[in-house]
Amino acid sequence: MNKSDENGGRFAYEGLDRLMHEKARLSIMASLYTRVEGHNFNELKKLCSLTDGNLSRHITVLKQAGLIEVIKGYEGNKPNTVCRLTESGRERFKSYLTELEQVIRDAAAGSIVETVDEKRGFSPA
Amino acid sequence: MNKSDENGGRFAYEGLDRLMHEKARLSIMASLYTRVEGHNFNELKKLCSLTDGNLSRHITVLKQAGLIEVIKGYEGNKPNTVCRLTESGRERFKSYLTELEQVIRDAAAGSIVETVDEKRGFSPA
After folding, report:
1. How close A25 comes to chain B (CA, Å)?
2. Is the ipTM of this complex over 0.90?
3. Do the beta carbons of residue A42 and residue B92 sit within 8 Å?
4. Interface contact flag, B8 A46, Cβ < 8 Å
């Protein structure tokens, strides 16, 4: 890539960390972001429409990456596993969201280009 | 999943079509969305910071899905392959963007919860 080109990487969205960008993990992160005290396994399953297996797998990935913590406790007599964002997880998700907002802004700018281009027409040389 | 739970799937983001959500393809779609007449292969490579191989592979996927069209033409004497969104591709990307906006809105609501939760504190029973 020619780094001297000022538009180089303009749409690369390097801030879209693949770890959080994966759809199921984005669901989990967004659920937990909106609730500081976290959610238990069954709540997350419902909120994200995930199967037991899928949810377990993605929780493991997010935990290993230090984005969430998993707290094993009890609700009455029943075991209750609660997931919540770590401080670093919350910060990293915020950065991820900032990049998502950039995608939206770029697209909004695109709607303007659309109008301009109608005047120009399309000529593939 | 208990479908009677009104929060069921609240964070599932079913509208995040995996075809467009994949990071490199999201880059390509966003680049093309902002320019109705499309971009040629080299422009896309730069804008999205992708290698030849990666770009080719993702263009094929997007073309097969009917999201983009690939127009082989000439610029002077040199072959010039231009990619642009199909009408359906533009519509589908718009729907995708609507769902992205929902993620941002949910997160913004989350910042409020954060403040409320500080008062509540965390008690894993």
Report:
1. 10
2. no
3. no
4. yes
Per-residue pLDDT of chain A (125 residues; tens, 9 = 90+): 444 456 789 999 999 999 999 999 999 999 999 999 999 999 999 999 999 999 999 999 999 999 999 999 998 999 899 999 999 999 999 999 999 999 999 998 875 544 444 444 444 44
What is the SS3 assignment for A15?
coil
d(CA A30, CA B8): 14
Q: Is A27 on the interface with B (CB under 8 A)?
A: yes
- Mutation for B interface: A35, A74, A103, A118, most B CBs within 10 A: A103
Q: Where are the alpha helices (DSSP H) in A3-122?
A: 18-21, 23-33, 41-48, 52-64, 87-120
Whether A5 and chain B come into contact, CB under 8 Å, resolves to: yes
Q: Does B66 touch chain A (CB under 8 A)?
A: no
Q: Which residues pair with B81 in a beta bridge?
A: B72
Phi then psi for A110, rounded to 5 degrees?
A: -60, -35
Kindly state whether B14 is in contact with chain A, defined as any CB-CB distance less than 8 angstroms: yes
* CA B44 from centroid of its chain's CA atoms: 15
Tell me how far apart the alpha carbons of residues A67 and A61 are, in angstroms, rounded to a whole number: 9
SS3 A80: strand
